[in-house]
């Protein structure tokens, strides 16, 4: 299903060590995370999509062919933007000249992003006359992102833009990326091996392993699979998106509403009712009971329906997928508990959520 | 120093300047290709470019004399084009100097282009720069120190050449009698005072060239590229 509002990429090529073999159709808006262990071919795929690396195949972006059987549009004629892990800011040009490099080469009729807007979105006003060598890692990556956006791309490709940064710089950049997601209506392909970044930014998830796509789909559904192609082990869990309903100043709690239910989480940092949030609920923090127990310490108690029960990494533990309304959850239990409670698909249970973590 | 001694000095500077300009024009595409190509001809071409480093200047001069002479193919070509013969002319010296100094310009340029790295050029491509823009606006400025080194070395090496000049240029005052040949003449005629004047100036000049070159490279290493 290739259409005028999707990105279609099909490549097949043998590289030393692995064979890239993918056929992907991605949504035309939102952030798609290409996720997998290092060496799984996700960066190679991104480079093939950009045309920086050649592999036989096809590439179509929002109805425009970039590569077909006998045609390979040169990289500099593609309306794409690429953010590199190492930024590659030109060291001989000031921040302003770096930003202008792609902007000036974009035909005036195709410019949809205003120079001052990009400078403002990424907070670069004070840096314009500086040279790249004098910037911090986080500042450099912000300049690189603005420089890429100023070509008014139809597709934004980001290759682990945060992985070379320390924790503080990551925290500095993530809010900018989140805001861009709301501002730009273009598809973004974001390569990462960091679960936290994916959980926070992605709408759509593509999991890769040894050059192949092993799972793909909307973030929530893909993370909630009980048969993940590679086990996330302790990271197995789901991501919920929703709004903050209410703050309980007395008990330092915040009530989070994900549409089909509500969960309490710890009130920390600046939070306001109405804020859009993403929270993570790990499978190991969810336990199940057949009856509603109010006489216990866990605050979050939700009625749910079991959808699947599957053996986890070791035969001793099982992974249970549940639904609260349409929202999926995962629970990791010992196989003995599953047996003793007689858990099976279709059954209604009470879900006890020990911990809900704000994704950041 | 006698007034007649200024002639070889000017001639040498003129030869070195013209040679340096041509040298950079010829070396840049060769160095760019050597730095980026994976073609099988790359190694053989690199070896040919480096030949003047190992060959005695007399060998190079001898073959140039043959090729550019009345029976050589270059000689026949230049004659047919109405340019006459190149040996024993200033133009002949320029051609020989460019070939003789080629490795001194190609190698620093090649190293500089290799050091630019693929990343900046790829970034430029994603910023809609055509191949020639990537070369002129990214590769050349980033290889700036390579160009300076190539120019200084090419100039200095041309000033210092002797064997090739003697083989194909001879000793014609005002046309091919360069500094090194003039010093040789003075020594032959036992005019040690004049030889001292020119030789001393050469030593001072060479020292200055090398000091500035080292300063330049030192600055590049400490990351003073702005």
Automatic annotation (TrEMBL), chain A:
Q: Which NCBIfam families match?
A: modC_ABC
Q: What is the lineage of its organism?
A: Bacteria, Pseudomonadati, Pseudomonadota, Gammaproteobacteria, Pseudomonadales
Q: What SMART domains does this protein's entry cite? A: AAA
Its Gene Ontology cellular component terms are: membrane
Chain ranges of the Mop domain: 295-360
Pinpoint the ABC transporter domain residues.
1-235
Q: Which Pfam families match?
A: ABC_tran, TOBE
Please report the organism this UniProt entry assigns to the protein.
Marinobacter lutaoensis
GO molecular-function terms, A-Z: ABC-type transporter activity; ATP binding; ATP hydrolysis activity; molybdate ion transmembrane transporter activity
What's the protein name?
Answer: Molybdenum ABC transporter ATP-binding protein
Q: Which UniProt keywords apply?
A: ATP-binding, Cell inner membrane, Cell membrane, Membrane, Molybdenum, Nucleotide-binding, Translocase, Transport
UniProtKB/TrEMBL annotation, chain B:
Annotated ranges, domain ABC transmembrane type-1: 9-215
| Domain of life the protein comes from | Bacteria
Q: How does it sit in the membrane?
A: Multi-pass membrane protein
Q: Which Gene3D superfamilies match?
A: MetI-like
Q: Which family does it belong to?
A: Belongs to the binding-protein-dependent transport system permease family. CysTW subfamily.
For this UniProt record, give its keywords in alphabetical order, as a comma-separated list: Cell inner membrane, Cell membrane, Membrane, Molybdenum, Transmembrane, Transmembrane helix, Transport
Q: What role is this protein assigned? A: Part of the binding-protein-dependent transport system for molybdenum; probably responsible for the translocation of the substrate across the membrane.
Recorded GO MF terms = molybdate ion transmembrane transporter activity
Where does it sit, as one GO cellular component term?
A: plasma membrane
Give me the segments passing through the membrane: 12-34, 46-69, 81-102, 192-216
Q: What is this protein called?
A: Molybdenum transport system permease
Grouped into one coarse class, the protein's main location is membrane
Q: Where in the cell is it found?
A: Cell inner membrane; Cell membrane
């Amino acid at each position: 299903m290739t259409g005028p509002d999707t990105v279609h990429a099909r490549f097949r090529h043998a590289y030393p060590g692995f064979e890239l073999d993918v056929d992907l159709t991605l949504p035309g808006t939102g952030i798609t995370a290409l996720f997998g262990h290092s060496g799984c071919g996700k960066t190679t795929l991104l480079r093939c999509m950009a045309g920086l690396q050649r592999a036989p195949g096809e590439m179509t972006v929002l109805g425009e062919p970039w590569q077909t059987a006998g045609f390979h549009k040169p990289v500099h004629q593609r309306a794409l933007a690429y953010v590199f892990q190492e930024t590659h800011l030109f060291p001989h040009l000031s921040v302003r000249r770096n930003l202008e490099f792609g902007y000036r080469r974009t035909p005036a009729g195709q410019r949809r992003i205003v120079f001052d807007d990009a400078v403002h979105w990424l907070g670069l006003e004070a840096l314009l006359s500086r040279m790249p060598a004098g910037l911090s890692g986080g500042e450099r990556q912000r300049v690189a992102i603005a420089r890429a956006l100023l070509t008014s791309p139809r597709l934004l490709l980001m290759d682990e833009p945060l992985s070379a940064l320390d924790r503080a710089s990551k925290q500095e950049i993530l809010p900018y990326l989140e805001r861009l997601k709301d501002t730009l209506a273009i598809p973004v392909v974001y390569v990462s091996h960091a679960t936290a970044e994916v959980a926070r930014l992605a709408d759509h998830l593509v999991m890769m392993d040894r050059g192949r796509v092993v799972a793909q789909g909307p973030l929530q559904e893909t993370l909630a699979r009980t048969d993940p192609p590679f086990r996330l082990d302790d990271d197995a869990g789901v991501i919920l998106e929703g709004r903050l309903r209410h703050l309980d100043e007395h008990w330092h709690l915040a009530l989070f509403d994900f549409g089909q239910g509500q969960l309490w989480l710890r009130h920390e940092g600046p939070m306001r009712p109405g804020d859009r949030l993403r929270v993570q609920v790990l499978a190991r923090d969810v336990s199940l009971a057949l009856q509603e127990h109010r006489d216990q310490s866990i605050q979050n108690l939700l009625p749910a329906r079991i959808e699947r029960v599957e053996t986890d990494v070791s035969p001793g533990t099982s992974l249970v997928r549940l639904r609260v309304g349409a929202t999926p959850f995962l629970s990791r239990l010992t196989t003995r508990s599953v047996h003793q409670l007689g858990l099976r698909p279709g059954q209604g249970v009470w879900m006890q959520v020990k911990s809900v973590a704000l994704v950041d | 120093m006698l007034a007649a001694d200024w002639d070889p000095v000017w001639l040498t500077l003129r030869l070195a300047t013209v040679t340096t300009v041509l040298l950079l024009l010829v070396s840049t595409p060769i160095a760019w290709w050597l730095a980026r190509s994976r073609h099988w001809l790359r190694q053989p071409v690199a070896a040919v470019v480096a030949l003047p480093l190992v060959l005695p200047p007399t060998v190079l001069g001898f073959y140039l004399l043959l090729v550019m002479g009345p029976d050589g193919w270059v000689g026949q070509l230049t004659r047919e084009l109405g340019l006459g013969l190149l040996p024993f002319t200033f133009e002949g010296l320029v051609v020989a100097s460019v070939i003789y100094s080629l490795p001194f310009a190609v190698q620093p340029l090649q190293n500089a282009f290799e050091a630019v790295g693929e990343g900046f050029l790829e970034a430029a491509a994603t910023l809609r720069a055509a191949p020639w823009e990537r070369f002129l606006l990214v590769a050349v400025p980033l290889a700036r120190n390579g160009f300076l080194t190539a120019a200084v070395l090419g100039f200095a090496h041309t000033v210092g050449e002797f064997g090739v000049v003697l083989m194909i240029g001879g000793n014609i005052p005002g046309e091919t009698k360069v500094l090194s040949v003039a010093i040789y003449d003075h020594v032959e005629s036992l005019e040690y005072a004049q030889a001292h004047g020119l030789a001393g100036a050469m030593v001072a000049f060479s020292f200055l060239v090398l000091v500035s070159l080292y300063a330049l490279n030192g600055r590049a290493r400490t990351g003073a590229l702005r």
